[in-house]
Amino acid sequence: MSTLHAKRAREFLKDPAKITHHDQTFWGMRMSRDKMVTQIPEWEELRDKASEIKRHTITHLADYLEEFSDHLEKNGVHVLWARDAKEFNQMVLKILTDHHVKKMVKSKSMMTEECGMNDFLKARGIDVVETDLGERILQLMHLKPAHIVVPAIHITRQQVAHTFEEKGMSQEEGNDDPTYLTRCARNSLRSEFLEAGAGMTGCNFGVAKTGDVVVCTNEGNADMATSMPKLHIVAMGLEKVIPDYASLAFFQRLLCRSATGQPTTTYTSHFRKPRPGGEMYVILIDNGRSDFIANPDHWETLKCIRCGACMNTCPVYRRSTGYSYSFFIPGPIGIDLGMLKDPKANSGNVSACSLCLSCDEVCPVHVNPGSQIYLWRQQLDHFGTANSEKKLMSWGMARVYNNYFMYDTALKMAPLLNHVPEAIIGNPKWSPWCVGHKMPVFVRKPFHVIEKDLEKEYGKESTTKL
Amino acid sequence: MKVGLFIPCYVDALYPHVGVATSKLLHYLGVDATYPHGQTCCGQPMANAGFEKMSRPLVEKFERTFKDFDYVVIPSVSCAAFVRFNYPKILEHCKVSEKVYDVVEFLHDILKVKALPGKFPHVVSVHNSCHGVRELGLSSPSELPGPRFNKIIDLLHLVSGITVKEPERPDECCGFGGMFAVEEPDVSKRMGEDKLAEHIATGAEYITGPDCSCLMHLQGVARKEHKNIKFKHVVEILAAGL
Q: Are residues B128 and B231 in the same domain?
């Protein structure tokens, strides 16, 4: 009955101390977010308004994209449109080849992760260097991000020290002081910035009215990546466009407070045109998004601003870690985005939700990731990915509940289960409930039997059977 | 006021005393509550598992059974929330969804109970079930700003001698989630263990809450790990001495 997520989670849960650390780290981020929220009396209005702006923009996407690209072009920026990941990768490769670039530095971008760009370029002889510290650590360790905002938070500083020593970035054996390690990374990245022929950034918000590409970072690495090389390439999903500065203000207030509990990111950079003597490309990537808009139940998933708040609050994410999900974005929003992208490949994540709906409450743009998961569950049967045991169990339960005679008989027989030896009934192999629980005790007299005595006690006639 | 009583399947089979406490408390408060025989399940388990269609006959039956009542009272927040929020999506022109109340809501908001006769000289830790918090609004969700309130605690304070505590992370999920507990047993277990530890850390003798399914899960974990803490549904404490 276990899904892919459940099986992977089981492996991670074998190290309880690590799970405790993981849970506490992300709960800490949730607490920081809560503290921020209490300081903003109009928080709920901000969420409502931000959601409305996104709904409006997504339902008028063609108009806003046109306005955005017109402004970019007027400012001397090349605008390219990529239908899918493959086309995007080819475009980047062509730009880099045309400019004889052998090394590109980049700031964090989940979009390039989605397209598998780094591996694609590496296979074609182009070195791509991640400059976000977390992403850089993962790149050196050949690992994937486990969270969309803090991708390497599951890595310990001892592991970082070890990796840096291996790569010759740290000369002091065993020194795992975070400040020291950050300096090592900075020194090594500095030469990468100087050597690189191109810099790539993602895009948090594209402002249609002005053509601004807005990038939010905490490390300033996006600014370094665009200030050294003369060539700047922006990888941007279609849904990142917003109308104007007034709407940007809403997202700016919501994004970082929701994500890490900071009032704002340390750097909020607006890129509007190429540097003097340089060139700037913006690649707008569809990769399924225009199809998602047509999905009546799930199109609002596109409102997501990738703050990661749903992951931080998710009790299942915190206890199963990012790698237990099959999609490159984990947690509640990752379950939904994965189902939009490839339902057959990602159905194994849909179980990773107890429907507690905490994510619906923290989402700054009312994507309602948890409620969306409920809806995806209803569609698994249609995709042919519903678990057959679960389906049988649900069918059996529905049979019993729909037939009162069977229900009454089942309840009369149930106490017999109390006498089945623990070794049989309590075996987690065929009773997953018993992985963590003792069986509950069935009573000899269920409520519907006792109730008849109560009615007599109250002096009432027993109501007729339906 | 014509009140219908719905006792969910698993309460019927495992926790009949919770049904009895609900019935007795309503009777004591002068409410003429009727328990229509022949009722079984609200349909939530199948729907949460992804088979909402299988729930439809049960939804129709619930609608037929309770359509003539002014209120339907259920001692279980997740069942009450399912009827209120999911029934209208499954059944067109559903009437009963607006009449359904969890027993805590009904006592607090409709009957506006201000006094209770019982005593319960014990320390209890309140388990705020997710659907009670985030769907029915029994307490203020910790995710949202605004004034703090808790209807469960308001009612418990009417019982004399009681000491009420809340665990750290007062509305984090305990990890039951219906079929989640069997489909993701290892995550569910870990969530249950963490929740249990937080309740125990309050020094409480009892864990009490408005939903027996969360309590069933926590009790199952506690028994497996030989943790010495007792469980009572809120209504059992409110009906103390009746």
A: yes
Query: Phi first, then psi: what are they for A438, rounded to 5°?
Result: -85, 155
CA distance A373 to chain B (A): 10
Cβ-based contacts of A462 with chain B (< 8 Å): 37
Tell me the per-residue pLDDT of A163-186, one tens digit each, with 9 for 90 and over.
999 999 999 999 999 999 999 999
> Kind of pairing, strands A231-237 and A279-285?
parallel
Same domain for B12 and B57: yes
Q: Where are the alpha helices (DSSP H) in B202-242?
A: 212-224, 234-238
Q: Which two tokens stand for residue A12?
A: 């991670």
B23 vs A44, A320, A454: nearest CB: A454
- In whole angstroms, what is the distance from residue A160 CA to residue A155 CA? 7
Q: Is residue B115 part of a domain?
A: no
| A6 φ, ψ (degrees, to nearest 5) | -60, -40
Q: Is B230 part of the contact surface with chain A (CB cutoff 8 Å)? A: no
Nearest-CA neighbor of A143 among A118, A165, A126, A166? A118
* Same structural domain, B96 and B158: no
A385 has pLDDT over 90: yes
Q: Distance from first CA to last CA of chain B, Å, rounded?
A: 22
Please determine, for residue A1, whether its predicted confidence score (pLDDT) is greater than 90.
Answer: no
Mean pLDDT throughout B122-142?
98
- What is the average per-residue pLDDT within A216-239? 95
With an 8 Å Cβ cutoff, are B40 and A34 in contact?
A: no
Chosen CATH of A40-155+197-291 out of 3.40.50.10420, 3.10.310.70, 3.40.1280.10, 3.40.718.10: 3.40.50.10420
What pLDDT does residue A464 have?
47
Structural domain count, chain B: 2
Residue ending a domain, among B110, B131, B160, is: B110
Q: Residue A53: count other Cβ atoms within 10 Å of its Cβ.
A: 20
Q: What is the DSSP string of B50-107?
A: T-HHHHHHHHHHHHHHHTT-SEEEES-HHHHHIIIIIHHHHSTT--GGGTEEEHHHII
Parent domain of B10: 3-110
Whole-prediction pTM: 0.95
Final residue before a domain boundary, out of B42, B77, B110: B110
Domain coordinates in residue numbering, chain A: 40-155+197-291
Q: Which two tokens stand for residue A31?
A: 């607490």
Decide if A73 contacts A273 (C-beta within 8 A): no
pLDDT in tens, A15-31: 999 999 999 999 999 99
